[in-house]
Design a protein that fits this description.
The protein contains 4 helices and 7 strands. The chain is α+β, with helices and mostly antiparallel strands. Among the domains are: about 55 residues, no CATH class; about 50 residues, no CATH class. The strands form 3 sheets. It has a 3-stranded antiparallel sheet with strand order 5-6-7, with helices on one face. It has a two-stranded antiparallel ribbon with strand order 1-2. Helix 1 crosses helix 3. The longest helix is centred in the middle third of the chain and has 17 residues. The N and C termini lie far apart (about 45 Å). About 20% of the residues are buried. The mean pLDDT is about 75.
């Protein structure tokens, strides 16, 4: 029997899995901690723990094939790659995946090559020359731009 309820949202399932991994050598303690987690529904501790653990998961790229994350800065929305999003409204731009809350806000990144120069563009009409010329640099510029505009 899994200690992680299947009904949890993907981000919370991943956070709880990472949390319980700390107790892998003591199954009884892991079960106790899982029950404590379940009892903390709605608490500030749980919200903070989920946010912290999701950041760790993102940085470590834990099981990147299983989760898809909204690329909006500080957004924790995600869905399982299989079977796909259960919520309508997810939007994929060439360099970003946006959840239903952020997709309609008018900030989708694209690029254009001008000779040897890569220019990143946002659908709000902002743009910047990006270096190095790769997708990660485009996404980094876009995330900084969105954070400044919406900040």
């Amino acid at each position: 029997m899994s200690l992680i309820p299947a009904i949890l949202q993907p981000a919370e399932r991943a956070a709880l899995a990472l949390y319980l991994d700390n107790f892998r050598d003591d199954p009884a303690l892991a079960e106790q901690m899982a029950r404590a987690w379940e009892a903390s529904v709605g608490s500030e501790y749980r919200t903070h723990a989920i946010e912290r653990m999701v950041r760790v998961l993102r940085a470590a790229a834990v099981d990147p094939g299983l989760l898809r994350w909204c690329d909006w800065p500080d957004c924790l929305a995600s869905y399982a790659a299989h079977p796909g999003p259960t919520e309508r409204g997810w939007m994929r731009h060439p360099y970003a995946l946006l959840c239903p809350a952020h997709a309609p806000l008018g900030h989708g990144p694209t690029v254009r090559w001008d000779g040897d120069v890569l220019t990143a563009h946002c659908s709000c009409s902002a743009s910047a020359v990006v270096s190095p010329t790769n997708g990660q640099a485009v996404k980094a510029w876009w995330r900084t731009h969105v954070a400044e505009v919406t900040g």
